[in-house]
Amino acid sequence: MKPHEIILMLSAMSIEAAGTRTRLWTAARWWHGATAMVAAASLVAQFVIILSDGNDNTTVVRYFSFFTIQSNILVCLTTAMLARRPDRDGAVYRVLRLDAVIGITVTGVVHYNVLRPLQNLTGWDQVCDIGLHIVVPVLAFVGWLAFGPRPRITARTVWLSLIFPIAWLVYTLFHGAFADWYPYPFVDVDEHGVGRVLLNCALVAVLFTVCGALAHLADRKLPPAPRPSSEA
pTM score, two decimals? Predict the structure, then answer.
């Protein structure tokens, strides 16, 4: 092969690679943007429904006390930022992104297998429930698998990500003790007793640690974050 033919071949390969990067970059922006919009729409719609049943401070506090709501908020915020820049990075952002992915994934799995069979929702309640517990978890998890960004997860990121679920558990137990209300049956001290609830909380902490470790492993094996064809 002559030198000029090699140069032409390498140029063609470079152009093709640039086009692939551009397509991945664009697809990532659209996917993350759609995830953020679905999460935002579901959160707002559910909040409106909650307010229609009573608009006092207790109603608002209880709404934001659900782990599902907090996880969806994290997904909405982190994917909205990724929609602008799919290769976003930063020490704090890494922790928030991991919390969002693990939190919403656990939310979806637990709700579908444990809580959903106990519900009998209709109308907009059912639409919001599907959005918050099924659609957003699927979009967020698939988006993380497909587009990352990665590598982003270190052992330190995993340990720091545990602050969010542990803080939620502590808040939930203290709030429940004063308000006599618990968002989920597994943390209901009145029903199960302190010992059983603390065991449940420990199991939740272990679950999040395992999920974080698996995410750390996957982060090293899956393809890196999409990059634009030009950094301009």
Answer: 0.86
Q: Identify whether 117 is preceded by a cis peptide bond (ω within 30 of 0).
A: no
User: What residue spans define the domains of the chain?
Assistant: 3-221
Q: Which two tokens stand for residue 68?
A: 């599902």
Which residue bears the tokens 């003790």? Answer: 177
Per residue in 41-56, pLDDT tens? 999 999 999 888 766 7
Cα separation values, 117 from 3, 66, 112, 113, 137, Å: 68, 18, 8, 7, 18
What's the 3-state SS for 102-161?
HHHHHHHHHHHHHHHHHCCCCHHHHHHHHHHHHHHHHHHHHHHHHHCCCCCCCHHHHHHH
The Cα–Cα gap between 212 and 154 comes to 10
Residue 161, pLDDT > 60, answer yes
Cα 93 to Cα 11: distance, rounded to the nearest angstrom? 36
Greatest alpha-carbon span in the chain: 81
Give the residue from 80, 69, 100 showing the smallest Cα distance to 36: 80
